[in-house]
Amino acid sequence: MHPSSKHAAVRIADFGMDTITLAGPLEAKLAAVRAAGFGQIMLAARDIVGHPHGVEAAVAAVKASGLRVTGFQVLRDFEGLSGHLHGYKVDIAKQMIAMAGASGAKVLLACSSTSQHASGDLAAIARDLRKLAMLAVPHQIKVAYEGLSWGRHINEVHQAWAAVQQADCPNLGLGIDSYHQFATGTPLYALDDIDPAKIFLVQLSDFMWQETRTEQERIDTARHFRVFPGEGVHSDALAALVTRLDAMGYRGDYSFEVFNDDYQQLPLPAVAARAHDSAVWLAEGVLRRSLPLPGQSRLRRAT
């Protein structure tokens, strides 16, 4: 059965792709994702601002594709700043929120700060996240705060959750990324105290080695060497993560955030097909509780 058939689309309805995985112009990315049977797309700001015919043309292309926008990424290094640096990032945030709203996104992803100028004071971080969330309210956008595994002060999911709890805004929640969970070795029980209704986005990927031994290796792996779920060496851990989230009651979107230099050199349909296989494995194998056999690393295409 062709992956774009109705049956395949239903089975992978909770899964989508990030545009950052694919090479080429925005319209080609959207067409490849749609043809592979996906119904949603996670947009990167550079796809919108980098369109040769401008932001309005990019937004029109997204809307014409028929794909639902999973979210918009990414606001970096926002929280914990003061003075003119804080004012600068507030201005950037306003523009990011406006673009997210124009593109049809309901979620803006914000990553924990890596700036050496950012305070680690939890009250200051929560105050800034609260301000960010309030800026997004008029646009009916939720903010998903994600702990980067190389974040300066917040680099694990339970730390991000503590900041979200202290900020206490209805439209502020968590973004969870499997890569960062595995890179820091954060145990699954760190998720136990999180309200699943406050998880606004889950991004999934794997990688080809067991651990990242230095911060630079962690960054390089994240930005260049991720693979789709089921293609790397953390398949069991990834299946356990998705199963845990499902058992907690998470019913939101999963998006494949796969930064991979090799995939940037492959035809779009080939990369989208790999993503489709991954979605089928997760939707039918993991979430339907029929786990793959031990050692079964290659994914089966639906027939």
Automatic annotation (TrEMBL):
InterPro entries hit by this protein: IolE/XylAMocC-like (IPR050312), Xyl_isomerase-like_sf (IPR036237), Xyl_isomerase-like_TIM-brl (IPR013022)
Domain of life, source organism: Bacteria
The Xylose isomerase-like TIM barrel domain, residue ranges: 30-275
Protein name: TIM barrel protein
Organism per entry: Ideonella lacteola
